[in-house]
Write a structure and sequence with these properties.
180 residues, mainly alpha, globular
Amino acid sequence: MHGSASSLSASVSSWLLVLLCAVSGAYCLRRVRGGSGAAAGEAVMGFGMALMAVPLGDGGAWRPPVLGAVFCAAAVHALWLLRGGAHHAHHLVGSLTMVYMAAAAGSGGGHVQAHGQGAGLPLLTGALLLYYAGYVVLGGTRLITAGGPVPAPVHVTSTELVRACRLAMGMGMLAMLLSM
């Protein structure tokens, strides 16, 4: 085994974050195929977060500009959808946060999760950490209280899966921000 225990731990946690985000993106993509067009932005977010979390070492120089462009387009799309409801404000914040993290990874010379070298602005990073911490706590509370008392055979509804998916992506975003 090569490397220290802390680098192995960082690699394992990066791959777990990749898995979490990819599964969330896949579920959202399935919802898009099922007729839920609103899930397209969440699918892009999940897969983009998974790609950003992949520990490539120094071989990922192409990633920050490509992901920055993808998430700029997602931010424009969320801004367009904002006309239809306040939920899309979160998508706008998420897309802009991903642009910010991609730019920080590009200027820091490394991978945000694997190396912790993101050169982000501490005040903005702190504000985003507070936002996502609140989002995760609120999302977890909503998920816990969604169904009321649990009936004898536990049935997970589609709404609960959507909430769990959003919560997982919020936790992933929080983890990526913490590594900056």
